[in-house]
Amino acid sequence: MMNDANEISHHTQLYGFIGEFAGQNSISATLNKLFKAKNKNAMMIPMNIREDDVFFTLSNMKKSHVNGALISSEYVKNTLEVLDERSDVVEFSGLCDIIIRDDKKLIGDVLSSRAIVKFLKDKGAEKIALLGVDARAKAFVFFAKEFDVSYYFDEIEQLMHFCQESGIEDADINRIAEGMDIDLSSYDAVIDFSDFESLSMISKLSAINLDMKHKKEFSALKVRANELEAYYVGFDNMLDVISQATFEFLEDKKHLEHDKSDMKF
Predict the structure, then answer these.
(1) Nearest residue to 133 via CA among 164, 98, 169, 108
(2) pLDDT value of residue 265
(3) What pTM, to 2 d.p., does this model score?
(4) Residue 6 has pLDDT above 80, yes or no
(5) How many Å apart are CA 101 and CA 163, to the nearest integer?
(6) Does residue 9 contact residue 263 with C-beta atoms inside 8 Å?
(7) Exposed end of the chain (fewer CB within 10 Å): N or C?
(8) Pseudo-torsion of CA 215, 220, 222, 227, nearest 10°?
């Protein structure tokens, strides 16, 4: 999707949003509105890419006019082998959801966790319940040093290994499993990075319940939040936050040097 004026020049910084159903996602349109509001000569284009074509697409970015890409959640691990450089958080977590091109090098980083941390800080959250032990959980932990985080999973050994591997000292480790009665109302936020098919064991949720699932993805947290009439936050509720984080990331990387006043058609 183009920005409102469909303005592209030879100086326009082009970015992609790569996902299986990228065209059905509003992140490109939301970011393009921000580019326009900030008078930046840049545009994000949704790119519907099948999993088999992700490596080929990203490899070709090195010699294309596309300067980088946001990566949808289903492909955040498919990006690793094509990267020429990885940020510390990519090395730490094993996922990459934003790539920028520097000449013919692809440099990978993590954006979604930055956006989540900023969102939670802006909401005044301090005490967090984190469900899950995957790469997304590790990426969040990397940026979440200022929060008081408690860790939940059904397999205690895996949870202990996760905390040790993540360098977390004196971790507050808790088991969560079917048949239990888990009250999370004392936390400011619950973040679900687990693969639980049901969260029926949770009897009370917190003020903010977030999992970054796309609207067409199944979300056990959303189901439970609806049942308990609690506030749920998915990817689509975070579009403005993610767009702002993307803008700031690209600006920090000196990728938005041209504004609209420089445009020459």
Answers:
(1) 164
(2) 30
(3) 0.91
(4) no
(5) 33
(6) yes
(7) C
(8) 140
